Amino acid sequence: MTNRHSTMLKTLGITALALGGLAVANTLAARAAERRYPPEGRFLTVDGVRLHYMEAGEGPPVVLLHGNVSALGDSLASGMFQRLARNHRVIAFDRPGMGHSDRPKNRSHGRDWTPEDQADLLARAFDALNIENAVVVGHSYATLVALALALDHRRAVKGLVLMAGYYFPTRRVDAALVAPVAMPVLGDLLRYTLSPPFAKAMMPAMLKTLFSPRPVPDHLTDSFPAALTIRPSQLRANAQDGVTMVPAAERLQHRYADVTVPVAIFAGHGDRVVEQEEQSGRLHHVLSDSTLHWVPDSGHMVHYADPELVVRRIDELSAEKAAPQVSVHR
């Protein structure tokens, strides 16, 4: 064996040991995060998928769906959940693969975990929990899930509140960047080795971008389970949502005119994640029964900037008389 070959073998061995060490460290860190932020709600198994949700209050139902790289703790940190529980039956879900909800990896469930797939699963969860005619509130990526619910499961939805959403396809650099993490084999390697420490290092900058032009709230570190979002399991879900977002917007944009429920759209002029003039403004023109609310001095996290405004609009939609359901026979 030549010295060159010997050096290569040693380098490969050291690299393998380093990656193995990272995998062990990241697995232990994920377990520590789950101990630090244990599930505070209940669990429901639907179609073999274990979903975590929190429920409080009484009255007309409101369902809260969080965005990507997030969890239901977002609605707690923003105060939305607590405010709504005063007058509503409010249910916040960890979307599949996020927080403490599962997202099965194999295709035996017949899902690619598109917004439509997630809407189908959540509609079955609604049935199991006796949720009907709910105001569904979606933030960021979850606006696509909320729209899919309104289009494909009309009896479940009375109205929509869409916050800082993405509705029409554009070129997204972030989708290309996360694509390797969603891939088989390579994605597994990345998620258990390099991706968690990289995501942890980038978290402060990401939060600053999300909340800009406002500062990141001081209480967020204690109230939002950020450590859960960088576990290997959720990194896969984050990446899958990242790569399915643009194709989903391409599919759904042709159906928006069929939305029959009233829609309240919230957007911030300073959003550095999604160009809201292009997205929310355009959606408002497509939806005949919609209102558009620009939140001043606000970026992507509009529900932190003015949660009372969002809650008032939810109250109004909830109080409106539901339009009669029309059955279509084909």
UniProtKB/TrEMBL annotation:
Keyword Nucleus annotated: no
GO CC entries: membrane
UniProt GO MF annotations: monoacylglycerol lipase activity
Residue ranges of every copy of the AB hydrolase-1 domain listed in the record: 60-305
Assigned keywords, A-Z: Hydrolase, Signal
InterPro entries in the cross-refs: AB_hydrolase_1, AB_hydrolase_fold, AB_hydrolase_sf
GO biological process: acylglycerol catabolic process
Pfam families noted in UniProt: Abhydrolase_1
Region of interest: Disordered: 95-114
Superkingdom of the organism of origin: Bacteria
Protein name: Alpha/beta hydrolase
Organism: Azospirillum oryzae
Lineage start: Bacteria, Pseudomonadati, Pseudomonadota, Alphaproteobacteria, Rhodospirillales
